[in-house]
Amino acid sequence: MVYEAKNYEHLLGTKGFSDQLLKNHFTLYQGYVTNTNKLVDTMMTMVKEGKASTPEFAELKRRFGWEFNGMRLHEYYFGNMKKDGSKLNEQSKLYKKITEMFGNYETWVNGFKATGAMRGIGWAVLYYDKQADKLYNVWINEHDTGHFAGCVPILIMDVFEHAFMLDYGTKRADYLEAFFNAINWEEAEKRFEEA
């Protein structure tokens, strides 16, 4: 199967995100798609050639998680954004679950932003654990470390420097505000409903 990069140019013009920052980010995402495809092809060839037990194969297999998750997390991230943003519907199941888990929406927002403001590079994710019927604000480091197995990503925020430095320098808090103004809550609500 060949993965194809999705087109997110509809996000150009999003308030708080320069077109140059977004175009750079789209190019970075396309690189993850390209590298995911290259790794799939290379590993399949190595299996066919009987080289699956080599150290080279093992390293490519480890790298595959990085490239694949880099691709998929960006798709979730761009997918839960829209040019004019939206508000979380207070009648939605997601809003009700957030208030049940965190006491109120504002407390959840503060916790999610605090997760995104942590030092280091990575992702802030609102995960839903269907088995326990719980929501968690989670830090994912380096694409492939920190995922909650079996949980569904509801909202993804990229906090690698490439997501904000061009526009905000080191003012990550300003980027977090811009991101919250660009959230496509309908998409997050859909992910929660389908979990």
Helices and strands, with pairings:
Elements: H1 19-48, H2 55-79, H3 93-102, H4 105-116, E1 123-129, E2 134-140, E3 152-158, H5 165-168, H6 172-181, H7 185-194
Antiparallel strand pairs: 1-2, 1-3
Helix pairs in contact: 1-2
Descriptors for this entry?
single chain; 195 residues; mainly alpha; minor pseudopilin epsh fold; 2 domains; three-stranded antiparallel beta sheet
- Apparent shape: globular
- The structure class reads mainly alpha
Largest sheet: 3 strands, antiparallel
- Provide the CATH top-level class of the largest domain: Alpha Beta
Supply Rg.
18 Å
CATH topology of the largest domain: minor pseudopilin epsh fold
- Work out the helix count: 7
Corresponding CATH superfamily of the largest domain:
Iron/manganese superoxide dismutase, C-terminal domain
Specify the helix fraction band. 40-55%
Number of domains: 2
Strand content: 5-15%
Adjacency order of strands in the biggest sheet: 2-1-3
Calculate the mean pLDDT score and round it: 97
**Can you count the beta strands?**
3
Distance between the termini: 25 Å
Query: What string gives the helices and strands in order?
Result: HHHHEEEHHH
* CATH architecture field of the largest domain: 3-Layer(bab) Sandwich
